[in-house]
Amino acid sequence: MKNLKKLTSILLLVISTTASAQFSFSSYALQNVNIIDVNTNEILYDYTIVIHNDEISAILPSKNYSVTDTVQSIRLKGKFVLPGLIDAHVHFATDPTEERRDNAEKVLKEMLLTGITSIRDMAGDARALASLSRDALVGDIVAPHIYYSALMAGSTFFADPRTIASAQGGISGKMPYMKAIGDNSNMVLDVAEAKGTGASGIKMYADLSNNEVVKIVEEAKRQNIPVWSHAALQIAKPSEIIASGVISISHANMLVYENDESENLIKSWIDHKPNGKEKEFWDAAFEKLDFSELYKLMIKNKVVLDATFSVLEIYKNRPKMIWRYEIGKRIIQQAHKKGVLIAAGSDSDQETFVQHEMKLLVNEAGFTPFEALVAATKNSAQATGILKNQGTIDVGKKANLLFLNSNPIENIEHIDDIFLVIKNGKLYNTEE
What we know:
The chain is α/β, with parallel strands linked by helices. The protein has helices at 4-17, 101-113, 126-138, 161-166, 187-196, 210-222, 238-243, 262-270, 278-287, 292-300, 309-313, 322-338, 354-365, 369-384; strands at 22-23, 27-37, 42-52, 55-61, 72-75, 80-83, 85-90, 116-121, 145-154, 174-175, 178-181, 201-204, 227-230, 248-250, 304-306, 342-343, 401-404, 418-423, 426-428.
């Protein structure tokens, strides 16, 4: 087990005898790797990473590492390693009766084997999500870590068919994981019940006032559960949400709702007739908007923007909704240049994964490949509230790692050139 050929043989043996396509040692060293350091934006060439159980126990130059009989050594010369990817915006259980469990397991397995070691589910049936999360945690299914939300919104929102589907067997707006908030809400109980579902965070969705936002966030902080939010809540404006104490906001295009004239602006964009000069039109439309104060507020409050570029791309071919893509793309690019932390969340109902989001950030929003890697690792971990133990390659953090054959800093397409995935110290063969 001190060379790659032996490792490959072991993995093939495990695949033939188990359904998990995984193998693990209690302690092992990954030697001669090139570390993509998302803390410093540097590549650390020829390093060794020592893993004990499910954590990184040491990181040092390979020339300083002494091989011992008690720690298995795996030489991976020329391979590039980065933190396991994190998709900060997915939906796996909006309607569990339609989104079959077997299909969910299939997609989750595919996500893990492409290098996604954690996901943040942004609202669905917590009963189904709790089951998936538990099984992923203990290894009963091959899947990323699953962090899911309990949704809170104004009472009018719960006529939405998606909430009715997610609350089957109960009443939409009255489930612990899907709660209508109003003047008579018992916030202490509502937050406690949300935590009781096993949710990793509370997501604020729609039809909430600034006063309700403040109450939710204050009580959530008291009970030590993070709050995530849409960037606008139809009543509460982006600036009010950002200042409330949330750790992340979703959907870049929603920042336009800070403007009192947003409805008129959007109407003018919808009424626009294509004339062959689309770039000029959207550039001019964007120049009339000023988000500088929102960017400053996000930076001041350390709020991460979960941009969801992938879902905005869907609107490119929908004339009445194309503004979401055109304005959203420009917001992402501008916010990034101003220093706002951007997380990578696909929100595409798993039609695409976070790797596609990363490529959009590079190819259409002016990110460097390194910046896209930071978005899909460190920033997504911060947006989820798990940066303490994931998102970077550091001693003491979870051994969630993605090994590539080619340098992703030279070309973001190399994110698909996968050699090996490690989650919780377990090695996964990506050929499965």
